[in-house]
Design brief:
Belongs to the PPase class C family. Prune subfamily. The protein has helices spanning about 1-15, 30-50, 85-95, 110-115, 170-185, 190-195, 195-210, 225-235, 240-255, 265-270, 285-290, 295-305, 335-345, 380-390; strands at about 20-25, 70-75, 105, 120-125, 140-145, 160-165, 270-275, 280-285, 310-320, 325-330, 355-360, 365-370. With about 400 residues, it is α/β, with parallel strands linked by helices. It has two domains: about 1-255, Alpha-Beta Complex (inorganic pyrophosphatase (n-terminal core)), CATH 3.90.1640.10; about 265-390, Diaminopimelate Epimerase, Chain A, domain 1 (Roll). Strands 3-2-1-4-5-6 form a six-stranded parallel sheet. Strands 7-8-9-10-12-11 form a six-stranded mixed sheet, sandwiched between helices. The mean pLDDT is about 90.
Length: about 400
């Protein structure tokens, strides 16, 4: 994989390519997004080389003529300086020998200019609703792989865009399935997985983390996730699959929750999305713990200003002693609007979040709740926020 990454970076820097395909995930850049982007771009590179006509390129192979090939680029959708905030992503990449310095980050290139400068395609993974700043990508999108409920409200893609959209625990499940299906078309069913074992290992680890090792309490794993895990394990052949799954989960949970060195402002950037005019950060600790940190609400206010958002919906999760979730709605500029959002989420039924209000000291303009529906994550809050914006 390092050879693929290194050659891709070199060719991109020197403009040595005839066409460009960018694979990019959502703006939160969590492990599912980062691994889906990296693995699927690597696969497209492998697939291209399997199908490339050797006769057509024969005259270039002796070095007498310059040959520019297709380039398949995974974009880690976070600024380079912010990548260390993605603690579980950085941990897994280090574990697999992937150098952070060799990756391609969001701010490394002017993406509109890059895409416009050559024949370009974009593959979206782990999202299909584009953030406002990413609307320019739509005209280039040729494929979408996502595990969120289908949202056609802002659909702006070409009619022939290839879509794989299915509600499963991890987008990596769908990426693995897509690779498996495409490989079978060239009678090489498992060749990619065997050629790039680090990809198989990262897909496996991410699905285990996203489903919390198929925890019944979290209730994220689906039969399709389980099917792909068993397929990957048939290739990886762990000596004790139960022990390996548990070890993977514990290692990644420890890396994700290792945020003691991060300030409140950094935590606000660790895993965040913007839905309409609502900032939605997700913490690997409880919101209650985040709000107890020095200048936490100041960090929220500053993040709202920087993103031109009116309100913040803070989502917290703790797995240290069984699963716990909590949430808070905050606004210092539009407190009445925040009250309306709080009431809307309290009454929301698809699904019900089972929000139990509690009072927190030193949390002005903040409505805080314990979330009793433990299976509801940010993915379930997004449709609620979209509905809230629709009725204002």
């Amino acid at each position: 994989m390092n050879e693929y990454i290194g050659s891709t970076v070199a060719k991109l820097k020197t403009n040595s390519f005839s066409g460009l395909t960018i694979v990019i995930g959502n703006e939160s850049c969590d492990l599912d997004t980062a691994v889906s982007s990296l693995v699927f771009a690597n696969f497209l590179y492998w697939q291209h080389n399997q199908l490339k006509c050797k006769v057509c390129t024969k005259e270039y192979r002796d070095g007498s003529m310059e040959y520019k090939d297709e380039l398949f680029v995974p974009v880690i959708n976070v600024d380079r300086n912010d990548f260390p905030l993605k603690t579980e992503v950085a941990h897994l990449f280090r574990e697999k020998g992937i150098s952070e310095s060799d990756l391609i980050y969001r701010d490394d290139y002017d993406l509109p200019q890059l895409l416009n400068s050559t024949k370009s395609k974009v593959v979206l993974v782990d999202h299909h609703v584009l953030a406002t700043k990413d609307k320019f990508l739509a005209e280039y999108v040729t494929e979408i792989i996502d595990h969120r409920p289908l949202d056609k409200s802002g659909w702006c893609y070409k009619p022939d865009t290839r879509t794989t959209i299915e509600i499963v625990g991890s987008c990596c499940t769908l990426v693995a399935q897509r690779i498996k299906d495409l490989s079978s078309l060239v009678a090489k069913d498992v060749d990619f997985f065997n050629a790039y074992p680090a990809c198989s290992e990262m897909l496996h680890a991410t699905i285990i983390l996203d489903t919390v090792n198929f925890s019944k309490e979290v209730n994220k794993g689906t039969p399709h996730d389980e099917e792909i895990i068993l397929f990957l394990e048939s290739l990886l052949k762990p000596a004790d699959y139960k022990a390996e799954r548990l070890n993977e989960l514990n290692r990644l949970l420890a890396a994700r929750t290792d945020v003691s060195h991060l300030s409140a402002a950094q935590l606000m950037k660790k895993d965040v999305k913007v839905i309409g005019n609502v900032l939605v950060p997700s913490f690997p600790i409880l919101v209650k713990e985040f709000l107890s940190r020095p200048e936490a609400l100041k960090a929220v206010s500053e993040a709202l200003t920087q993103t031109n958002c009116d309100m913040a919906l803070l989502l917290g999760m703790d797995l240290s002693e069984g699963l716990k979730r909590d949430t808070a709605v905050f606004s210092d500029s539009k407190p009445q609007k925040a009250v309306l959002l709080s009431k809307f989420l309290e009454d929301f039924k698809s699904p019900s979040f089972n929000l139990s209000p509690e009072q927190l000291e030193n949390a002005t303009n903040c409505s805080y709740y314990c979330q009793l529906n433990l299976s509801a994550s940010r993915k379930q809050y997004i449709p609620a926020l979209n509905q809230f914006h629709g009725i204002l």
